[in-house]
């Protein structure tokens, strides 16, 4: 009984002694200095590094795989050019301004195989034209950016 | 797969293919007959959409629509269309090349060939054919296909 009471008293005195020793200002100062030198706090961003790095690496891998596949399927050769470009509209050139393209007799040569406006393919191409009464003329004019074909015969009032 | 499903599928395929084959042998053309002149400034047109095109393409001051007909061209024969003052227009489907159709258009009067032309038309396409003179002016024929 006596021994137990003495043991408790000794234990309490020892804990108080340790608490006083540890709580001394110079000890606390040395403790802070030791922790600062050996256990430096990392920046907050790195604390959650795995949570950011793993999805980022996964996204990068997916992007590289798709980019590789796309390059394999559609290899780009030569310099890149813009898909859409603006160009001034071609001025309509009609045969009426350049003169008739055929005269009396039959012409087997195809006329106006080349479109008047390069950016719109003509919907009508005159393969052959002839007349027994007068000169013929084939011309195209742009109507709403579409070449419209006209086949004309100059009969000269011979009706 | 039961018999009904097989029959229905076969019938569906048959009727799906048939119009395509028929379409290759026929061509519907709308021919609009106009008379253009420099007397007056009247535009007597059923289809007002022609007005701007006519002003752009020609320099006449008056246009009068005389007739408009839908013709079905086949490779078997030619279609005739009566024009003013004894002219006649003959249209023949000559064939197809890729997505274009070859149409021959002939304008005649009194056994005289006023115009003979072969047109390669990408459907839908419009071509103006004209020039034969009449008492009021000159004939202009608007040929439309694929509309």
Spatial strand sequence of the major β-sheet of chain B: 2-3-1-9-8
The rough form of chain A would be described as rod-shaped
Largest interface in this structure? A-B, 30 and 35 residues
Largest sheet of chain B, in brief, is:
5 strands, mixed
Oligomer kind: heterodimer
Order of helices and strands of chain A: HHHHHEEEE
Distance separating the two termini of chain B: 41 Å
Number of helices of chain B: 2
Helix content of chain A: 40-55%
- Structure classification of chain B: alpha+beta
Poorly predicted ranges of chain B: 11-23
Please state roughly what percent of the residues of chain A sit in beta strands, choosing from under 5%, 5-15%, 15-25%, 25-35%, 35-45% or over 45%. 15-25%
Uncertain runs of chain A are 74-119
Radius of gyration of chain A: 48 Å
C-alpha geometry of chain B: globular
Tell me the number of strands of chain A. 4
Average pLDDT rating of chain B: 81
Radius of gyration of chain B: 20 Å
Q: Give the overall average pLDDT of chain A.
A: 68
* Strand order of the biggest β-sheet of chain A: 1-2
**Residues in helix, % of chain B:** 10-25%
List keywords for this structure.
heterodimer; A: 159 residues; 5 helices; B: 147 residues; alpha+beta; 2 helices; 9 strands; globular
Task: Describe the model.
The complex is a heterodimer of chains A (159) and B (147). Helix content of chain A is 43%, strand content 17%. Chain A is α+β, with helices and mostly antiparallel strands. A two-stranded antiparallel sheet of chain A has the order 1-2. Residues 74-119 of chain A have low confidence and may be disordered. Chain B has a 5-stranded mixed β-sheet with strand order 2-3-1-9-8. Chain B has a 4-stranded antiparallel β-sheet with strand order 4-5-6-7, with no helix packed on it. Chain A binds chain B through residues 106, 121-134, 136, 141, 143, 148-159, and chain B through 52-53, 56-58, 85, 100, 102, 105, 107, 109, 112-135.
